[in-house]
Design brief:
The chain has 155 residues and is of the alpha+beta class. It is 32% helix and 26% strand. This is BLUF domain-containing protein.
Length: 155
Amino acid sequence: MVESGASTGGGPVFRLIYRSSLKISGDDLQVELPKILAAARRKNPEQGITGALVVWEDSVVQTLEGEESAVRGLYDTIQRDPRHEQVELVETAAGVDRAFPRWSMARVTDDDEADLPLSVNQWEGGIDVTAPRLQTPAEEAVIASMRNRVRGAPA
């Protein structure tokens, strides 16, 4: 979900990208994934964390951005989550500009679209499913890398 209220302060942040396999499949994934995203969208703003999630078959690649201790703490929680296995840290970067300042946690499909486009009129209601995509070049670059990684391609 793209959220107009997810914006956090400017300045450099810590970025962590990981890959994992989900122990959830089929119909269970259709039930669990919205729960996972809803929890992230509720909790991440409290921690100043933004990011995006790509799910392809049973593979996940997620980008987390924010203050380093908050991001690493969330990653530690994810590593212990019984819904994930083979959790692999694929990239960390300190002092980078936030690629996803507007998204507490966006779910990105494996085919070029975020699950909801950001509203053109953020101040008038946030989400407009008829609005065109408004991805920035930074978002597009990180998302392209995530899509490659979720399919097993090298970065």
